[in-house]
Amino acid sequence: MAGEWWRRAVVYQIYVRSFADSDGDGLGDLNGIRSRLAYLSELGVDGFWLTPFYPSPGADHGYDVADYTDVDPQLGTLADFDALVEEAHALGLRVLVDIVPNHTSREHPWFLNALSSADHPDRARYVFRPGRDGGPPNGWTSVFGGSAWTLDEPSGEWYLHFFSPDQPDLDWHNEQVQADFEDVLRFWLDRAVDGFRIDVAQALFKARDLHEMVEPDPPTWHADWVTAVNQPELHPLYERWRTVADEYPGERMFVGEIVLQDHVTLARYVEPDRLHLAFTFSLLHAEWDADAMRHVIDDARTAFDSVDACPTWVFENHDVTRLATRYGSVERARAAALLMLALPGAKFLYQGQELGLEEVEVPDAARQDPIFFRTAGERVGRDGCRVPIPWENGPPAFGFTTGTPWLPMPDAWTELTVERQRERDDSTLELYRRALAERPSGALVWRESPAGTLVFERGSLVCAVNVDAERLELPAGELVVATELPVDGALVRNAAAWIRVIPGG
Ligand code: GLC
Prior knowledge:
With 505 residues, this protein is an alpha/beta fold. Helices cover 25% and strands 15% of the residues.
């Protein structure tokens, strides 16, 4: 395969619990994924990322890992995993797994040992501290709401958890932690994975003095703490991880979940010999506004170019409201898809994005996300984007499971199943399939265009997006793919098209 495959890759995120269920328990699993691999290959993606499938009590749906080198019995076995990788590779699909190094589950043997006695050596793997003035050691708050500290009553010390109390943070200043994770990487690399998505990659090391984290003012994205995470120790760590990946044949790669807004800071993570990719969440956070999107695209490209890396564009994942709902319409989500798939750099799609799914209003009684519970319902959480995939037929399970789906699926999805969308030429699924097959290459060159529009060329392909203008005149050429058919040679508002032109013409 061509060198540095990740620079052009489109990777499909599989939220394992919600993709396909093979055994009728209502939870997606590895064998369910195996049964749907042909779908991914026909869609035209280069590979997929599996969200955590490791043994886990499920407090954060797999992001609370109790054993880093096994498969949760509810989701399959190591033999199923090996078969999945082999079958994916036979179809030319790369497989990425999710590594969760910031925290373990409360049920991980290391943490159980740590709680068993203040003298146990495993205690040093975590961040235990005495309190301050009868309260926690500092004012850090958890991403999921409330304090980031929980009292361990027998010892009188507090332990740190950036997420829920069921997810105690590891102390990455501890050398044993570092050595053990290298073994975890090798365990999966030996099983032929093509790489890793690194969870919470900017936060493993905390400032040793645990000084207060100062939120940017005005506050911008959640979790964009800048003073106590994003520590200098991360870069040598990722250089070592890169060395480990490079020992293996076949171009294994890392993509970091790094929730930092500033592209220059972000680009430091993908300097040569560090991570291959880092999600560029700025586009995901941009409004449906031509100037805002163009600014983000150019600013990111400048920062990444300066370190000879490329951005990693993403509009959806299992933590954010679905794109069609954020942008207020499926039309805009479709137009955004053609914009993103035309950009230079890597791209990640989230399962269901290719179906144009909207955020689901999950009834409170069915909600599962710890964010909902830790904020007493003030934040509804992420269940609405995690509802299982509608494959075929109708409610209640749309071919996802023969049992009851772990989150209820809306009746209105009957028209949006994979089966139905395959039959319709104008469906969102067909739009993605065609765009993935026609992905452009070459440098991005902006073309002059009216306010409220984005037009650029890459090679012989022109990508035109009418974000908010009355009409956008299209250049002469062959219409390759469009979200709406042009009217009198022009695109209506909230529409996009790719046109093949004679270069420079
Ligand atoms: C990441 C994951 C999110 C999880 C959190 C804690 O942000 O994407 O789903 O809850 O880390 O592991």
